[in-house]
Amino acid sequence: QVQLVESGGGLVQPGGSLRLSCAASGFAFSGFDMAWFRQAPGKEREFVASIKWSGSGTMYADSVKGRFTISRDNAKSLVYLQMNSLKPEDTAVYYCNRNMPSLRVSWGQGTQVIVSL
């Protein structure tokens, strides 16, 4: 069955870095644009970054532009999110999914990122 499994979250100090991974299975990963989303406590889930199926095009939310980098490995069905210069406001549960809303699959469990002293 279709499955998305996020990992790599944790507790990090402001200014630190984390690399998130998302392992996809059950569908033809290389044929889909993918994206990262996040949901902070008490807030709606929001878009963070997306990457074209080929890896050739990326987009970022203004709040993370210049600090986060999305990438993918189609051979391994993995999508990554390198997060640098982390801020307390980046604290959230991070999820991956297909970018197109009409093509979204069931959300995974996410991975918790906490940015705090």
Could you describe the 3D structure shown?
Strand 5 and strand 6 (58-60) form a beta hairpin. The strands form two sheets. The protein has a six-stranded mixed sheet, with no helix packed on it. Helix content is 0%, strand content 47%. The protein has 117 residues and is mainly beta. The model has no long low-confidence stretch (mean pLDDT 97).
**Assembly type:** single chain
Report low-confidence residues grouped into runs of 5 or more. none
Distance between the termini: 40 Å
Rg from Cα: 13 Å
The secondary-structure class comes to mainly beta
> What's the number of helices?
0
Beta-strand percent range: over 45%
Tell me how many strands there are.
Answer: 10
Largest sheet: 6 strands, mixed
Helix share of residues?
A: under 10%
Order of helices and strands: EEEEEEEEEE
Widest sheet: strand order? 2-10-9-4-5-6
Mean pLDDT: 97
- What would you call the shape? globular
Protein topology:
Layout: E1 3-7, E2 10-12, E3 18-25, E4 34-39, E5 46-51, E6 58-60, E7 68-73, E8 78-83, E9 92-98, E10 111-115
Parallel strand pairs: 2-10
Antiparallel strand pairs: 1-3, 3-8, 4-5, 4-9, 5-6, 7-8, 9-10
Characteristic key phrases:
117 residues, mainly beta, 6-stranded mixed β-sheet, 4-stranded antiparallel β-sheet, 10 strands, 0% helix, 47% strand
Summarize the structure.
This protein is an all-beta fold. The chain is built from no helices and ten strands.
